[in-house]
């Protein structure tokens, strides 16, 4: 640790001067700006006094300037008060409408609950059907009316394959009298396939068209009987 010198002894050490820190202030920059502005103004005045003309700077013309739109006037005084009254009235009407809609929805829901409850209570109070109640008498079944057979398109008394009896025998005997129609045919009374071919052959040879092919109908009967009645 250094010791302080005696008062009688000279101090040969270097004297330290205090360090001064200079900080720029905002006012200094503003003062410098004003100073430059004053110097430019003085120089401009001196040049004008000597007859110096400053060049004019032409700005590029970009067409007609657009029309400016005026801002809406600011509501003040009574106008501002009236606008506030209108806004408050609108809010009140909206609130009233919302309340009315909510009340209507709640009323409808309550009415539906009351109707459902009333229906259930009515069903509960209704007497149950008695198990011993007499049953309604059953209606007797109606008898179906007998259906009449459809009339034969070839006329009544028509004979076809599968029939038998004396009428078939009479047909066989008459066909034997027609040449080359039913030669050596049977007369046993059975309407078989051979007899069907003989009837169809007779119909073709003699131009009979009113009956089905191979079926002994009215037209075929009349034609055959007319040709064998005198034999």
UniProtKB/TrEMBL annotation:
Compositionally biased tracts (Low complexity): 118-147
Record protein name field: Peptidoglycan-binding protein
Basic and acidic residues compositional bias, start-end: 39-51, 222-231
UniProt-listed SUPFAM superfamilies: PGBD-like (SSF47090)
Protein's UniProt keywords contain NADP: no
Claim: Disulfide bond is one of the keywords in the record: no
Annotated keywords: Membrane, Transmembrane, Transmembrane helix
Superkingdom to which the source organism belongs: Bacteria
Domain Peptidoglycan binding-like as annotated: residue spans: 164-224
Pfam families: PG_binding_1 (PF01471)
Segments crossing the lipid bilayer: 95-116
């Amino acid at each position: 640790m250094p010791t302080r010198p005696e008062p009688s002894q000279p101090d040969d050490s270097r004297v330290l001067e205090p360090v001064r820190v200079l900080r720029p202030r905002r006012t200094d920059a503003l003062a410098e700006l004003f100073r430059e502005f004053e110097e430019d103004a003085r120089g401009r005045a001196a040049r004008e006094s000597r007859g110096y003309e400053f060049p004019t700077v032409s700005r590029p013309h970009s067409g007609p300037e657009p029309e400016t739109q005026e801002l809406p006037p600011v509501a003040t005084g009574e106008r501002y008060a009236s606008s506030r009254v209108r806004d408050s009235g609108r809010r009140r009407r909206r609130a009233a409408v919302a309340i009315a809609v909510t009340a209507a929805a709640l009323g409808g829901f309550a009415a539906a609950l009351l109707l459902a409850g009333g229906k259930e209570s009515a069903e509960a109070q209704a007497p149950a059907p008695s198990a011993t109640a007499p049953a309604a008498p059953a209606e007797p079944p109606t008898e179906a009316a007998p259906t009449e057979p459809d009339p034969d398109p070839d006329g009544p008394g028509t004979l076809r394959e599968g029939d038998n009896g004396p009428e078939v025998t009479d047909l066989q005997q008459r066909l034997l009298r027609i040449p080359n129609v039913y030669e050596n045919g049977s007369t046993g009374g059975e309407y078989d396939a051979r007899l069907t071919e003989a009837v169809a052959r007779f119909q073709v040879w003699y131009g009979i068209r009113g009956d089905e092919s191979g079926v002994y109908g009215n037209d075929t009967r009349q034609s055959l009987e007319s040709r064998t009645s005198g034999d």
